């Protein structure tokens, strides 16, 4: 079995400047240090030296990581319940007329004060959701931005809002609620971990 350079010519493990110089040279040549090379370089005490070295290296791609995009709806100071997140909990069982029925809970969260509004809904259809949303607005006030996932009820409600907006443009609108109040709806992109944090936190 062939010995590598550090096994053939060992040096004092406490000599931190020499170890840092060798690691910097390897790091600038290879742009990164693999786990196999770390196993050969046993003079560093754990991963602390490597983490410290990577934070000091100007060529390392890990030094300049892209920060997550903060949405305007999460960073703008708006009024209470100005930006909300929507989701459904359930189904759960609810007593009604002496029997048990399925029910869902409409969960509305506000990112600014971490407030939560819960409303029991009997089904997931669009009409029930819009009625629950009107009830929320009557109690808490009108939001400006609504952020939700891609559930079918939310998509259908968004389509109803878009159709109502088209009717507003054509001056033949029957239900001007969402367009009169200028409520903007946004859906979370799929597989996007930085969107909708205030809904999950």
UniProtKB/TrEMBL annotation:
Gene Ontology MF annotations: nucleic acid binding
InterPro entries (UniProt xref): RNaseH-like_sf, RNaseH_sf
PANTHER family: PHD-TYPE DOMAIN-CONTAINING PROTEIN
Annotated protein name in UniProt: Integrase catalytic domain-containing protein
């Amino acid at each position: 079995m062939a010995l590598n350079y550090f096994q053939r010519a060992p040096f004092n493990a406490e000599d931190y400047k020499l170890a840092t110089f060798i690691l910097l040279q390897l790091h600038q040549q290879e742009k990164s240090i693999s786990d196999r090379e770390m196993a050969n370089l046993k003079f560093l005490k754990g991963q602390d030296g490597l983490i410290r070295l990577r934070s000091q290296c100007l060529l390392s791609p890990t030094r300049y990581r892209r920060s997550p995009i903060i949405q305007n709806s999460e960073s703008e100071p708006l009024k209470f319940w100005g930006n909300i997140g929507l989701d459904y909990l359930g189904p759960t069982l609810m007593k009604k007329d002496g029997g048990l029925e399925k029910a869902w809970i409409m969960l509305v969260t506000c990112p600014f004060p971490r407030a939560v509004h819960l409303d029991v809904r009997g089904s997931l259809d669009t009409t029930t959701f819009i009625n629950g949303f009107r009830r929320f607005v009557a109690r808490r006030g009108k939001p400006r931005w609504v952020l939700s996932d891609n559930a079918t009820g939310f998509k259908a409600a968004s389509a109803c809002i878009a159709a109502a907006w088209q009717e507003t443009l054509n001056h033949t609108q029957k239900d001007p609620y969402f367009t009169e109040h200028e409520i903007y709806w946004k859906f979370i992109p799929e597989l996007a971990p930085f969107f909708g944090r205030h809904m999950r936190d």
